[in-house]
Design goal:
The protein has five helices and no strands. It is mainly α and about 110 residues long.
Length: about 110
Amino acid sequence: MHSKYFVLFIVISLFTVGCATKRYGRLQPVTGYESGAYSCEDIKIELSKIDAFELQVAEGAEFSALSVASFLGDLGIGNTIEKNAAIKTAKERRVQLNDLSASKGCP
């Protein structure tokens, strides 16, 4: 009887851990339309959105119960990969916006 409960516990744990990887989202590259339409003020606003996104990712990466469940499933590798991918897209968009700002002669 105890082995049934043990197997059930293991199965439920595996299903729970499989859903434990945190998701941060991604920022999209600057489009051709954005390059042509954005004013200097629009670029500043977009840069502040990147700051907020990076802060959200940093706060989401803090230790929590979800971190424990994720660590049990894949030793935390999934969360690290997800966080790094999110930060990478933010950095790429920031570089593109800074280049756009320089090309438009923004202060």
